[in-house]
Structure formats: C-alpha cells, structure tokens
Amino acid sequence: MLPWWGWFLVWTVLLAASAALIGQRAWRVWGSVKGVSREAARASALVAELEARADELRDLEPAPPAVTQSPLRMREEYRAGKAATRAARRARRAERLPPWARVD
What we know:
Layout: H1 4-59, H2 71-96
Keywords: Coiled coil
C-alpha cells in the first residue's frame, strides 16, 4: 500500500500526462482548422472567379447549330480547325527539340 504522498504523486503524473495529451491533440486540431480555413478561402475565391467566367459566357451569343449551316462552310471550318491544331502541335514539338536539332 502506498502512503498518501505516493498517491498524490501518481495522480499528479496522471493529470500532467493527460493535460499534455490533450494539449497535443488541441494543437493538432488547431493546425487542421487553420488548414481547412485556408482551403475554404481558396475555394471561395475560385468559386467567385468561376461565377464571373460563367456570367461572361452567358452573355455570349450561342453558335447556330451545324445542321442549319451550309455543308461547304462547315467543311471549311473543320479544315481550318484541323490546320490550327496541326500548327499548334508542330510548334509544341519544335519547342521540345534540343537547340542543335532545330531547323529555323
């Protein structure tokens, strides 16, 4: 059997250990709360930006459906789009080439 001061020491150590554990957990929760609030602020800024962009897109005139357009005009647009895609692809490939392999 422990004397009275032994029990006092046991309870003091238990209380100090539990206070340290609670403090550590609280510190981790505080860090998580700060991170979540940072992400929430970033998300709200992104949502505001997306809403502004959606408003811009709502103001644009919708393109007429391709079914009602002339087949020749649609073919020209298709070929122009394909040519632009090919040119962009060639430019990207040229940028990836090392300087000694580039032909200007």
